[in-house]
Write a structure and sequence with these properties.
CATH architecture: Roll
Number of domains: 1
Order of helices and strands: EHEEEEHEHEEEE
Strand order of the largest sheet: 1-2-3-4-5
Length: 220
């Protein structure tokens, strides 16, 4: 059945789909977010759960004039909380090429004398310094994985802030960062601290190798 694009269930499924697309296609040079829902439909799959059909417009966080259309399907597994929703998507048109920005960032981090450490990105005024923007984007992209793994029909997660990030020294070609982020769960209005270990390489994309929800006081 058709749903109004502004319907809360369509909105939640669209936020999950956008987070998943960002995780699959984002990088330190590109973060994607939901701009609008153009169409939405929902039907129940017997014995599994509800399936949403969505037509979305996604925008680049760095360049809001850069948008792409995306169709997505989200299938929630009711009754089994341990299975992440199934998400399929197709992007129409081309995403902006970020190879140059990604490679510059990669070289800069690889050449650091000491491992990078930072906190509170953005700061309390919403400001992100240019050299920390790729670090924020990498967290934004990786948080899409956490959202995908933990979303249900009754949740809507949004990345809020990096509380702390520390680079981990590696002997191979990957970059590794240990993040403590804050996620805003829009339905309950909870702010949730989440720890995640993120690997990235320009050729291989983003991997979240470990993540765990933290107790409230972890963000203090």
């Amino acid at each position: 059945m058709e749903l109004p694009p502004s319907h809360h269930r369509a909105d939640r499924a669209a936020a999950l789909a956008a987070g998943y697309v960002c995780y699959r296609r984002g990088s330190p040079g590109r973060g994607l977010r939901l701009r609008s829902v153009r169409r939405a439909g929902r039907r129940d799959i017997d014995g599994v759960g509800p399936k949403y059909h969505l037509e979305l417009v996604l925008e680049d966080i760095v360049d809001e004039d850069s948008t792409v259309n995306c169709t997505a399907e989200v299938l929630y597994h009711l009754g089994n909380k341990n299975i992440a929703p199934d998400v399929q998507f197709t992007i129409e048109g081309e995403l902006k090429n970020t190879d140059e920005a990604d490679n510059i960032f990669y070289s800069r981090i690889k050449s650091l004398e000491k491992e990078l450490v930072a906190e509170n990105i953005p700061d309390s005024h919403g400001h992100v310094s240019p050299e920390m923007e790729p670090i924020r984007l990498l967290a934004w992209v990786a948080s899409g994985y956490v959202m995908w793994q933990n979303s249900t029909e009754n949740t809507k997660f949004q990345f809020a802030q990096i509380k702390h990030v520390k680079q981990v020294k590696r002997s191979d070609e990957y970059l590794e960062f240990n993040y403590m982020i804050l996620l805003h769960e829009m339905v309950s209005q909870e702010i949730i601290p989440w720890q995640m270990t993120v690997l990235w390489h320009p050729q291989h994309g983003v991997q979240v190798t470990q993540d765990s929800r933290q107790p409230k006081h972890a963000s203090e």
